[in-house]
């Protein structure tokens, strides 16, 4: 195995095969359209991945909309970094962590107000990418009407990409998504090793 | 289930319990230190997640180093977006996709040169976060000496965070990591639906 991996001829042959496979797949995949991506599961990296896609989209000159559900109150590193970008519209649901408010009616109200911000983006083809961070949590707690959310997502402009993050994605959302990634925890310092959540990578 | 989730008292009780659990866990986790995160698995979002962490770290005023292994040649959206940031040092391994070069010796040379750039960051405590994008690929193809890589990672400044991305993370790397997330594909438009890889979210 080790020797094969290092053998230059086998290596070149494998890479050539890989290149052909990728080109064939690219040729098959013809359709250009906005995709709905769902990033879910208990592992780290769901929101980070969404924000990485924001950076990528901005790098391509796109206009980006971001709505953060549930987490509010204190500014995250991402918020500080992206909020003032001229091509970014940023809204944070104003009620802080739900376990700090402990008031369902207020949570529902805040979620509905945040969804209105999202809908404005989902109706505007100027937005190339819309990130709905932690929307899955708002759906799971039924802060929002799921049917309305799905309708609004499906009615978006044809070329608009949407990224939805959060654990426990609803099956109905997965059904209408183009791409779904499930993040699994293999090992976690915060849980396993007594290391505090670290600013910069986790907060 | 649906009714329970909507009951305000049960909701408040559950949120209060969640808050206590989180506070207890935070109190237990005392140690402040740089963490080594590994993002692996076949699902989407590994590199995006790393770049999201870059944005987060920059939002906290940290200095960030980025080295991209394997993928080079054309500028990604992330590269365009982050390369000129005053707090970012960015290096891309210069040889393009390995399946374009098909030359093992050149790949090894390029990987070694890229590792030297990484080592300069890993020895400099001024860098709060170092992203080693797709390093797992370079290790898997044995373009780099694994023992040396692990030694350099472990010898880094105590408060420095490192994020390593790419499929098929080596077990020896997982062993020294603080947090490991495995991205699993649940559904993929590019594979399943004939949709071309989309600029902004995937390229």
UniProtKB/TrEMBL annotation, chains A, B:
<comment type="pathway">
    <text>Cofactor biosynthesis; adenosylcobalamin biosynthesis; adenosylcobalamin from cob(II)yrinate a,c-diamide: step 2/7.</text>
</comment>
<dbReference type="GO" id="GO:0005524">
    <property type="term" value="F:ATP binding"/>
</dbReference>
<dbReference type="InterPro" id="IPR003724">
    <property type="entry name" value="CblAdoTrfase_CobA"/>
</dbReference>
<dbReference type="InterPro" id="IPR027417">
    <property type="entry name" value="P-loop_NTPase"/>
</dbReference>
<protein>
    <recommendedName>
        <fullName>Corrinoid adenosyltransferase</fullName>
        <ecNumber>2.5.1.17</ecNumber>
    </recommendedName>
</protein>
<keyword id="KW-0547">Nucleotide-binding</keyword>
<keyword id="KW-0808">Transferase</keyword>
<keyword id="KW-0627">Porphyrin biosynthesis</keyword>
<keyword id="KW-0169">Cobalamin biosynthesis</keyword>
<dbReference type="GO" id="GO:0005737">
    <property type="term" value="C:cytoplasm"/>
</dbReference>
<dbReference type="GO" id="GO:0006779">
    <property type="term" value="P:porphyrin-containing compound biosynthetic process"/>
</dbReference>
<keyword id="KW-0963">Cytoplasm</keyword>
<dbReference type="GO" id="GO:0008817">
    <property type="term" value="F:corrinoid adenosyltransferase activity"/>
</dbReference>
<keyword id="KW-0067">ATP-binding</keyword>
<dbReference type="GO" id="GO:0009236">
    <property type="term" value="P:cobalamin biosynthetic process"/>
</dbReference>
<dbReference type="Pfam" id="PF02572">
    <property type="entry name" value="CobA_CobO_BtuR"/>
</dbReference>
<comment type="function">
    <text>Required for both de novo synthesis of the corrin ring for the assimilation of exogenous corrinoids. Participates in the adenosylation of a variety of incomplete and complete corrinoids.</text>
</comment>
<comment type="similarity">
    <text>Belongs to the Cob(I)alamin adenosyltransferase family.</text>
</comment>
């Amino acid at each position: 195995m080790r020797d094969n991996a290092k053998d230059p001829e086998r290596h070149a042959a494998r890479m050539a095969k890989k290149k052909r496979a990728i080109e064939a797949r690219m040729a098959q995949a013809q359709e250009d359209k906005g995709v709905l991506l769902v990033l879910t599961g208990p592992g780290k990296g769901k929101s980070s991945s969404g924000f990485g896609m924001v950076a990528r989209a901005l790098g391509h000159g796109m206009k980006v909309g971001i709505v953060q559900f549930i987490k509010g109150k204190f500014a995250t590193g991402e918020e500080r970094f992206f909020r003032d970008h001229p091509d970014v519209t940023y809204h944070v649901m104003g009620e802080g962590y739900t376990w700090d408010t402990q008031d369902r009616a207020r949570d529902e109200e805040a979620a509905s107000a945040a969804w209105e911000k999202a809908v404005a983006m989902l109706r505007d083809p100027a937005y190339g990418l819309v990130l709905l961070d932690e929307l899955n949590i708002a759906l799971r707690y039924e802060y929002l009407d799921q049917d309305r959310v799905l309708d609004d997502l499906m009615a978006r402009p044809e070329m608009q990409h949407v990224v939805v993050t959060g654990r426990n994605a609803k099956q109905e959302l997965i059904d209408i998504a183009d791409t779904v990634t499930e993040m699994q925890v293999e090992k976690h310092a915060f849980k396993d090793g007594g290391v505090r959540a670290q600013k910069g990578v986790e907060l």
